[in-house]
Design brief:
Blueprint (H helix, E strand, L loop, with lengths): L2 H43 L2 H18 L2 H29 L15 H7 L2 H17 L3 H50 L12 H45 L1
């Protein structure tokens, strides 16, 4: 299976999941869950912008040159960084501005307990992202594609009954359960391709990866910033025209 086909199945499963959410939770519940997922994605994706690219590049180099002995150090260092930098960024933000994240939603403070439970899934999602990058570095595209499909189907099968049984709390708990299942799936498959352990982490490898990771992170951050600026300008300049169009 190709990566493109796997992504198509992932998108289809996401659409089905969104329909289930709309039926079970209604517009208000979907909005709250979307806000929770956005906060979780912020701490999952943003710190990983540079790390995953660096892991893919270094593992691809090790596989190409036959340096199998360095693979353990690269995997352990990348996985350790993923499990460290995401929780550190999360704890710093929660300590500095614990109530700021609730301003994006009306009466957001009432849903902070739901958010705190969902944030348990963040380190697990970061680890899955890094393991997927390592698989791609090994050119295991078929295995990565199958894992994407399995993850999409597991998400749909697990979260549907939990939502109908426990509503918003079921959806939030489902995020954690799905992250744990995905981490187990990826860990099982990755252990068949390369040694999976945190014992081989190396400061020397971390220093080499940090330069590539920083460059990737800066480039991705600048692209994201440019996108947000353009979107803000377009929203400001054309909001009145769009409002008039809908009113007419």
């Amino acid at each position: 299976m190709t990566l493109g086909a796997a992504r198509a199945i992932e998108i289809a499963a996401a659409i089905c999941r969104q329909k289930v959410l709309a039926v079970a939770l209604g517009p208000a519940g979907v909005g709250v869950l979307g806000w929770i997922r956005n906060v979780c994605d912020l701490f999952t994706i943003f710190p990983q912008l540079g790390l995953d690219g660096a892991a893919t590049r270094f593992i691809a180099g090790c596989a190409r040159d036959g340096r199998r002995d360095e693979v353990r150090a690269v995997v352990a260092t990348a996985l350790g960084a993923a499990l460290l930098n995401v929780p550190v960024a999360l704890l710093i933000y929660l300590f500095v501005a614990p109530r700021h994240i609730a301003t994006g939603l009306e009466n957001g403070g009432a849903y902070l307990p739901h958010l705190y439970v969902a944030l348990v899934s963040v380190p697990l999602c970061a680890a899955v992202s890094t393991l997927n990058a390592c698989l791609i570095g090994f050119k295991e595209v078929g295995r990565a594609s199958r894992l994407i499909v399995a993850s999409s189907l597991v998400t749909l099968l697990v979260i549907t009954p939990m939502i109908f049984l426990f509503h918003l709390w079921g959806a939030v708990a489902g995020l954690v359960v799905i992250a744990a299942i995905n981490a187990a799936l990826y860990g099982r498959e990755c252990s068949r391709v390369f040694p999976l352990s945190l014992r081989g982490a190396s400061l020397a490898v971390a220093r080499k990866m940090s330069g590539v990771a920083a460059a990737n992170w800066i480039g991705a951050s600048l692209s994201l910033l440019a996108f947000l600026i353009v979107r803000s300008i377009l929203a400001r300049d054309y909001s009145n025209d769009v409002a008039g169009l809908f009113q007419s």
